[in-house]
Every structure is written in structure tokens, then in C-alpha cells.
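Milestone M4 deliverable, item 7.
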Amino acid sequence: MKKYISLIFIFGFLFLFQSCSSQSSLDSKTVDALVDSQEFTFHAQRANPINYEVINAMGSIQNAPSMRILQLDEGSYTIELRKNNLEVVLPYFGRLYNASYNTANNSYRFTSKDFTVDKSQNKKGKWTLKIKPNDVRNADEINIEVFKNGKALVSIRSNDRQPISYDGYVSKNDESQKEKL
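Output delivered:
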């Protein structure tokens, strides 16, 4: 009888983790179609600052966990890639070398119409996109790595601040935004 109870407990535990798994994963064919068409939206879930001064400052806040990863609001921070438009809305945590008094300029919030995209896929199915916006001052290169399940890692290199990376997932672009363009 104890064996049956332990088996039921184990299966219940596994079922709990299966139901709590991420709901944002896609099948590999959908991911390949989205990335190949260069029409997708990256949704940032976590920010990974590289500057240890920021990490130490976060650790000094009372009753806050000293972690290197910052959880972001779901759906608030995105990179939207279209054939002729790149829209980036991401927060920034780190050292700015040319900070401005306008705090809206301190994060990554821009729209680019002049950019180049170099994409490649490795043997395991991971896509790598290198986006170079030519008409934006504060972002030199955006690297997006998209995995087969739709999860993605974004790193942004800039000439006026330290690099930062973001974890999240990709999805199909919102059709209501397409009509506005």
C-alpha cells in the first residue's frame, strides 16, 4: 500500500510540474517560419545586468533577494521586428557613459527604419540574428538567439553604456499594430 501511495505522490508531483511549465513554447516549425520571415515580437521576461555595481546595489536593498536577474512585467517590454520597422522598448540597468537628464532617453526606446539583419541557423536548429540599426544613436548591435521551442536570449551592445542581456520568448506580431503602419 505504501508503494502505491508513493507512486501516486510521484505522479502527482510530475503532473504539477508539467502543468506549471511555460505556456509560451512553440513548435519548431512555427519558430522557423517566424524567424525566417523576420516578422516576430520578442517579449522580455528577465533582464540580466552585467555591471556588478548594479547587482551590489540590488543586494543592498532591505528584504530583497540578491539575485543577478531582474523579473520584468509580462508583455511590457518587447522588440518588434518587421520587414521595414524595428521597434524596441526595453529597460536598462547599468552604467551610462553619456547619461541625460531626460530619463526616457536612458532606456532602450526607439524605432528604426534603417537597419540590417544577418541571420543564420546552426545544425541543432538555433537561430542567430544580428540586427544593426543605422539610424539609432544608443544601440550599436542587437543579437537575438532563438531556440527551437521559441525561447530567446537578446543582448544589446551600445557605444554609450555597458552591455545587457534579456531572456524571454518570441511570438507572432500583433495584427492590430500592423494596420497602424
